[in-house]
Specification:
heterodimer, A: about 110 residues, mainly beta, seven-stranded mixed beta sheet, about 0% helix, B: about 120 residues, six-stranded mixed beta sheet, four-stranded antiparallel beta sheet, about 50% strand
Chain lengths: ~110, ~120
């Protein structure tokens, strides 16, 4: 158990809908990262938050947004969903940003029909 | 852009044998970390081993060891005495350049362990 909690584990929705994925980092970790894993693109970095502030942005679509709350949990919002958004979405947290070592949650499997 | 390349999409090994997974990367940093993550069918990403680039000694964690060649920017993972539970996707990763803390991952190598 990495200590990172993600909900929901599975989610099935229709095109055009909006979903929210939730992540609770390990106790004490200030950084939260979101990654998207699809068969053809591998693991793609979406966005990072550090202590409530956006720290780095990757290949995140404008239809996607995220935030980190004062209690350090984070939410990833995906809107106007398309079939191609079907993927595994991982949240990870880290204590020491210098090393880059990440602790991953179990992921949220999103299926868009 | 920084890249991490895993040239072996799939590998297989007999139980109790040794297998080596390859990884090359591109960075202009002088001090950095390198990681191997394992993703079993349960899908959670698990850290297997990490290497600090300024250390010449190769990292070892039980049956897992690395062959780190800094000049060649090569970071291979050796799994000794392979076990059925080692079957998984293995990803090589390193932090992005320019002060960003995000990890850049290779495409992964699927390891099958045959009994």
């Amino acid at each position: 158990d990495s200590g990172v909690t993600q909900t929901p584990k599975h989610l099935i929705t229709a095109t055009g809908q909006r979903v929210t994925l939730r992540c609770s980092p390990r106790s004490g970790d200030l950084s939260v990262y979101w990654y998207q894993q699809s068969l053809d693109q591998g693991l793609q970095f979406l966005i990072q938050y550090y202590n409530g502030e956006e720290r780095a942005k990757g290949n995140i679509l404008e239809r996607f947004s995220a935030q980190q709350f004062p209690d350090l949990h984070s939410e990833l919002n995906l809107s106007s969903l398309e079939l191609g958004d079907s993927a595994l979405y991982f949240c990870a947290s880290s204590l020491d940003p210098y090393t880059g070592e990440l602790f991953f949650g179990e992921g949220s499997r999103l299926t868009v029909l | 852009a920084q890249t991490v390349t895993q040239s072996q999409p799939e590998m297989s090994v007999q139980e109790a044998e040794t297998v080596t997974l390859s990884c090359t990367y591109d960075t202009s940093e002088s001090d950095y970390y390198l990681f191997w993550y394992k993703q079993p069918p349960s899908r959670q990403m698990i850290l297997v081993i990490r290497q600090e680039a300024y250390k010449q000694q190769n990292a070892t964690e039980n049956r897992f060891s690395v062959n780190f060649q800094k000049a060649a920017k090569s970071f291979s993972l050796k799994i000794s005495d392979s076990q059925l539970g080692d079957a998984a996707m293995y990803f090589c990763a390193t932090p992005s350049q320019g002060g960003s803390e995000k990890l850049v991952f290779g495409k992964g190598t699927k390891l099958t362990v045959n009994p």
